[in-house]
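tokens incoming
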């Protein structure tokens, strides 16, 4: 048994959960930034401030955290491939995580659009979209901790 399969597995899992928390924090914050940004008039100094904040949170927190969540998650599967046949929970979890990664990509595209004063400039829509990570997190954590099937 090598280090990754044995003692190292819990360290990899710790790193995984740490970057999950950073990624989720960013996925909760960025739609709210875009909701507030939608209230600022295009080209205004306030809009410029939100552009800087959105670019920074995406570049410094969200994208690195998503990447490292995937790296440590896949490292655990590589270390214990039997997890893939330990029930449907991991497959459904990965499907939800792919959806969450798609949502991340959608947000990144919107940040680019807001930079050129386009994009979905509707506060109500952003407040609704902000609920997506909440539902995903509840389902994913129950799947991976309870492993119901
Ligand atoms: C990005 C792709 C992901 C992959 C490949 C992945 C894979 C895994 C694997 C293989 C485990 C170990 C399961 C075990 O030992 O029983 C795990 C643990 C965990 N994952 Fe993920 N995961 C991913 C994303 C996420 C996300 C987005 C969340 C939360 C929103 C999450 C939350 C957790 C938690 C809380 C644990 C610890 C469960 C426990 O020890 O009981 N994972 N993950």
């Amino acid at each position: 048994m090598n280090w990754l399969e044995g003692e190292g597995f819990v360290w990899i899992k710790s790193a995984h959960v740490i970057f999950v928390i950073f990624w989720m924090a960013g996925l909760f914050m960025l739609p709210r930034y875009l909701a507030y940004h939608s209230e600022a008039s295009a080209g205004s100094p306030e809009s410029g401030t939100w552009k800087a904040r959105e670019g920074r949170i995406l570049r410094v927190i969200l994208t690195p955290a998503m990447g490292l969540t995937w790296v440590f998650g896949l490292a655990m599967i590589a270390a214990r491939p039997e997890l893939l046949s330990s029930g449907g929970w991991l497959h459904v979890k990965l499907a939800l995580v792919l959806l969450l990664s798609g949502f991340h990509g959608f947000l990144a595209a919107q940040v680019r659009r807001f930079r050129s004063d386009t994009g979905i400039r509707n506060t109500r829509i952003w407040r609704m979209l902000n609920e997506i990570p909440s539902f995903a997190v509840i389902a994913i954590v129950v799947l991976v901790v309870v492993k119901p099937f």
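note: The mean pLDDT is 96.
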